[in-house]
Amino acid sequence: MKTAFIGAVEGSAIALRSLCAAGHAPSLVVTLPLEKSGAHSDFADLGPIAEEYGIDLLRVARSDDPALMQKLRDMTPDLVMIIGWSQLVGADLIALPRIGTLGFHPAPLPKMRGRAVLPWQILTRQTQGGSTLFWIDEGIDDGPIAAQAVFDIDPDRITVRELYDRAVTEMAAMLPGLLDRLAAGERPARPQDHDKASICARRRPEDGEIDWSRSATEIERLVRAVGPPYPGATTQTAKAETVHVTGARLHPRDGYFIGLPGQIQSVDENIVTVMCGDGRCLDLLEWSGPDRLVRHGMLGQTR
């Protein structure tokens, strides 16, 4: 069975290694040029894996690149896998492989279709996460399901890093067995129940800005939702320096500090305590930006 693998992120690398270890190394790996690595905060170079296993490698910036399309036409693949590419795929590419084009979505489809689904699962307090391998068609994540794992999550505790890792781990575990079935002539394809679908909107950098007039619980949830492998929640110092917050917790003493939303109440070694809009404080545990945050200074602006 001739297969092609397209991807460019951490999850892509894990999936590719899982396939290779199981004896399903693809004939072709397609990934981004290194100069395009900034397109993904979780970028992973698939070149070293392709070299390790002697796989033909093609670097293109877009899924409609003429060089890619010609390569696939010449190859006549049975299966194309698109894992961690974050680009829409045209009908010409979808129609090329004999069996179909397989995609990965880190959510329990048909719920949470669309963009930025891992942050949205935390922000909307979903209690179930998922990992779905599905057949790509011209819709938005609405093709038949080839394999799926659904698992419980605690939206009030889980970080996006933990959710990302769990979804990718489940996917990498399902993928070799699915290829065994495809090689044997099976093609599992369970139609999605479109009446149960939900669509996640794209998130932009400004959506990660902290509004200190919001409650401490809401801000802590935002930090968990947009932290690593993503850039983190952002705020500004009084000198307009950007701070990326990647770890936070509710301050254990409610009502101890009195101040304005966004006001730094305490700096204790590497913990910065900031007042939020509901009168509770948030401890910033992990952050990057200026060398230090000035005690009793202000962060951001309330809206």
Describe this structure as you would to a colleague.
The protein has two domains: 3-200, Formyl transferase, N-terminal domain (Rossmann fold, 3-Layer(aba) Sandwich); 205-288, Methionyl-tRNA Fmet Formyltransferase, Chain A, domain 2. It is 25% helix and 24% strand. The protein contains seven helices and 14 strands. The strands form three sheets. It has a seven-stranded mixed β-sheet. α1 (10-21) runs parallel beside α6 and α5 packs antiparallel against α7. The protein is elongated, with a radius of gyration of 22 Å.
Task: List the keywords.
elongated, Methionyl-tRNA Fmet Formyltransferase, Chain A, domain 2, 5-stranded antiparallel beta sheet, Rossmann fold, 25% helix, 2 domains, 7-stranded mixed beta sheet, alpha/beta, 303 residues
| Model regions low in confidence, pLDDT < 50 over at least 5 residues | none
Q: Which strand order does the major sheet show?
A: 3-2-1-4-5-7-8
Order of helices and strands: EHEHEHEHEEHEEHEHEEEEE
CATH architecture of the largest domain: 3-Layer(aba) Sandwich
Radius of gyration: 22 Å
Average pLDDT confidence is 94
Quaternary assembly: single chain
Total strand count, please? 14
Q: What is the rounded distance between the termini?
A: 57 Å
The CATH topology of the largest domain? Rossmann fold
Number of domains: 2
Question: Would you identify the CATH H-level superfamily of the largest domain?
Answer: Formyl transferase, N-terminal domain
Task: Specify the overall morphology.
Answer: elongated
Range of strand content: 15-25%
Helix content, binned percent: 10-25%
Q: In DSSP terms, counting alpha (H) and pi (I) runs of 4 or more, how many helices?
A: 7
Regarding CATH, which class of the largest domain?
A: Alpha Beta
Helix- and strand-based class?
alpha/beta
Question: Main β-sheet: number of strands, strand sense, barrel status?
Answer: 7 strands, mixed
